[in-house]
C-alpha cells in the first residue's frame, strides 16, 4: 500500500446501508485528512504533547501512545525529545494502522526507541510509564470497559506520572449539547463535508462511539486515584484533559 494520504471521500455517495465505522484500509488511506477536517483542535493537541513531555517527563521514561493510529502523537513526542530521553510504546488494535505507523515512525525517527504493536488496550500487559497519551481512543471502547482501562493506566503510571486524555464529549445540558453539535456540523461543512457526508458518518459512528461528558471523565479519573485532572483544551464538542498521579 502507498503511504500517500488521500482526501476523505468515504461518505460522499448515498449508501443503502451505512456500515459501522471501522479503522480499515479505506480509513487508513485518508486518515490524516479525516482528522484534520473532523476534529476541532486536533493539530493544537498534537502540537502540545511534546511540550507536555518536556515539562513533566523524567528523562528516559516510557510513554504509551494508546490507539496510536498512524502515530501522530508518537511523532510529535519524538520530534520534541532526544532519543535517550524517551521510549515510546505505540499501540493500536487495527492491523493496517499498525503496519503503516511502524513503517513511518521507523523512517522518520530511526534513532528513537519506538515500538509499535497491535494489541487491545483493555488487555495489554502494561510496564511502568511516566506519561500516557489516549488521544480520541477511549471513546471507541464500550462504556462499561472504560473504568477498568483508566484504573489500569493509573496503576501503570509512575508517581508524578501524567495522563493526557482527548475525547469527543457530550454536554450534560441538552441545550448546550444541541448547540455544540450544530456548530460542530458547521465546522465540518466549512471544512468541505456535505450534509450527506455528515449524516452518514454520524450514522456510522452511532453504535461504535459513545462519548462521555467532561463530568463523567473527571469523576472517572478521580475515582481511579488521580490527584488532580483538568481540561486544558475544549473546542466545540472536543476536549483534552490532563491528569496527574501524586508524586511519592
Ligand atoms: C480516533 S483514532 C486515534 C487517533 C490517534 N490517537 C491520533 O492522535 O492521531 C482511534 C484509534 O483507536 C484504535 N482503537 C480502538 N479501540 C482500541 C482498542 N481496544 N485497543 C487499541 N486500539 C484501539 C483504533 O484502531 C483507532 O486507530
Ligand atoms: O467525524 C466525527 O463525527 C468524529 O467524531 C470524528 C472522529 C473522532 O472523534 O475520533 C471520528 C472518527 C474518526 O476516528 C475520526 C474522527
UniProtKB/TrEMBL annotation:
GO terms for molecular function: carboxyl- or carbamoyltransferase activity; S-adenosyl-L-methionine binding. Catalyzes the conversion of S-adenosyl-L-methionine (SAM) to carboxy-S-adenosyl-L-methionine (Cx-SAM). The gene is cmoA. One of its GO terms (biological process) is tRNA wobble uridine modification. Homodimer. The keyword Protease does not apply. Its EC number is 2.1.3.-. The keyword Transferase applies. It catalyses: prephenate + S-adenosyl-L-methionine = carboxy-S-adenosyl-L-methionine + 3-phenylpyruvate + H2O. Keywords: S-adenosyl-L-methionine, Transferase. This is Carboxy-S-adenosyl-L-methionine synthase. Residues 63-161 form the Methyltransferase domain. InterPro entries: CmoA, Methyltransf_25, SAM-dependent_MTases_sf. S-adenosyl-L-methionine binds at residues 42, 67-69, 120-121, 135, 202. It is an enzyme of class 2 (transferase).
